[in-house]
Amino acid sequence: MTRAELKANVDTIVVVIMENRSFDHVLGHLRHSMYGNRRDIDGIEDLANPDYINPNIDGQAVAPFWMDDRSFDCDLPHDSGPIASQLRYSAVTGKFAMNGFVHAFEEQVHTSVSDPPVMGLLTPGSIPATGALAAQYTVCNRWFACIPTSTVPNRLMSMCGRTDLGETGIVVPDQQTVYDWLLERGVSWRVYAAGLPFFTLMPRLSLHLLRPHFRRLDQLKKDLEQEPATDWPNVIFIEPDYYDCPLHFRPPCDNHPPLGMAPGEAFLAEVYTVLSGDERRWSRTVFILTYDEHGGFFDHVPPLPVKYRNLQKAISFDSTGPRVPAIVAGPFAPRGVSNAFLDNTSILQLIAERFGKAGETYSAEVAGRMQQKIESVSAVLSLAARNSKPCDLSAVISHSIGGPAPSATVASRLREGFDRAVTDFVVKHRAEAFAKYPELRRYADVSVSPGALTESVAAPPAAAKVSAPVPKKGRPSAPKKRGARKRRRAPTIRRPKGK
């Protein structure tokens, strides 16, 4: 679609960014004769294809294999070092071998297993919502993680067009975000979050979390039914409940390992069903589902030679990350595939085309990626699509994602960052924070140590089962004197190697 077509036909862009899965892991089965035989999908046609073989540390060949959705015993390697091992670039051939996924996994867990999860390929029964959207709308064969590193830098690229971090750290630097870009241009926007929003991690934005721009996901349906069209936002970001956040409003549903996919599939079905249920607004909506990065899972397609440089922060990458699952949905999304070169900055390009001035790009950094052949999501869209009838995901929603908060999750730098950010948020905005997010009161409860919320556990919660947190054991605290001021104990936090 052209800029003129976008401005004339699209009122709202909806963005959902999930966590840590590769294209082949989620959608690769669609190419196989057993699971759809879609020749337009660049997926896995033959499990025995020698190009897909990944040797383990002992030199034994490991092929991709079919797997059902489940939780994992641990997170998978996806920092820049392990990713370099996974991609295995050769300076001699100038190509990526894409056969180091098993080796990187075994380096992390210090053992060898017969079916390493990094080579697992999900089948249709494991992705009922994503599979239905893939059948109805546009699957993006060439949508890549922005840079070959972990969660936070890729989230910053997705929402800022640049990153001041090369690796996920405990502190997220203050950067200008897409929220700032939209505010400066008077474009209405909103965040609906199933849990605490991701940018709880960015200190500068903590006050914004208390304002109407940030709302709980439970409000989405009510707002859609009651708000006049003139109040409905132009850009909507919908966020899952993040696994690494120490506080959950519902079972985490971001698909980040060691979680299974089931809660995330129910979350996607819920969001899509609510939005597509309003026929008039849906007719002028573009819905984008993507992931931040591949999470350590195998993908057979080499990354693109798109360079990223941040000289002030000494950050340098010579390619994108591996492919991630991405689907563009809505009435302007043709049924089939797109082979356009895309990453999450393609969304920022689309926002600038629709809501910016004539000829305006989102930023110099995003324009630099455009010059390196990263296209806009507008390359996917077409007025001729006329894909207005929504698919029925009601059966997927029936897999409830409500219930008590899960037990403490596996320790990570991102989890530690969330814990510190949530604590700071409560300290800075106590009364207002409790009013909007009553669940935060646990952080002010002197009878529960914040450290209990960050304990590492031996096994993650199962995909469809959750349990209440287990209080941290220890000697009971001494009785407090009447009238004494309550003081929070400092969090006890594990510092793992990486995330």
Can you walk me through this structure?
It is a single chain. By secondary structure, this protein is α/β, with parallel strands linked by helices. The protein has a domain of about 325 residues: Alkaline Phosphatase, subunit A. It has 15 helices and 18 strands. The chain has an eight-stranded mixed beta sheet, with helices on both faces. Strands 2-3 form a two-stranded antiparallel sheet. The protein is globular. The two termini are about 40 Å apart.
Instruction: Tell me the β content.
Output: 5-15%
What is the tally of helical segments? 15
Cross-sheet strand order for the largest sheet: 11-10-12-1-13-16-8-17
Structural class: alpha/beta
Query: Can you summarize the main beta sheet?
Result: 8 strands, mixed
CA radius of gyration is: 22 Å
Top CATH class of the domain at 3-52 and 125-397: Alpha Beta
What low-confidence regions span 5 or more consecutive residues with pLDDT below 50?
400-406, 446-499
Intertermini distance? 38 Å
CATH topology of the domain at 3-52 and 125-397: Alkaline Phosphatase, subunit A
| Overall pLDDT | 88
Shape: globular
Number of strands: 18
Helix amount, in percent? 25-40%
CATH architecture field of the domain at 3-52 and 125-397: 3-Layer(aba) Sandwich
Give a topology summary.
Layout: H1 3-9, E1 12-18, H2 23-27, E2 54-55, E3 61-62, E4 65-67, H3 80-87, E5 89-90, E6 95-96, H4 101-109, E7 120-122, H5 128-136, E8 138-140, E9 143-144, H6 151-160, H7 178-184, E10 189-193, E11 214-216, H8 219-226, E12 235-239, H9 262-276, H10 279-282, E13 285-291, E14 308-310, E15 315-317, E16 327-329, E17 336-338, E18 342-343, H11 345-355, H12 364-371, H13 394-397, H14 413-428, H15 430-436
Parallel strand pairs: 1-12, 1-13, 4-7, 8-17, 9-18, 10-11, 10-12
Antiparallel strand pairs: 2-3, 5-6, 8-16, 13-16, 14-15
Helix pairs in contact: 3-4, 14-15
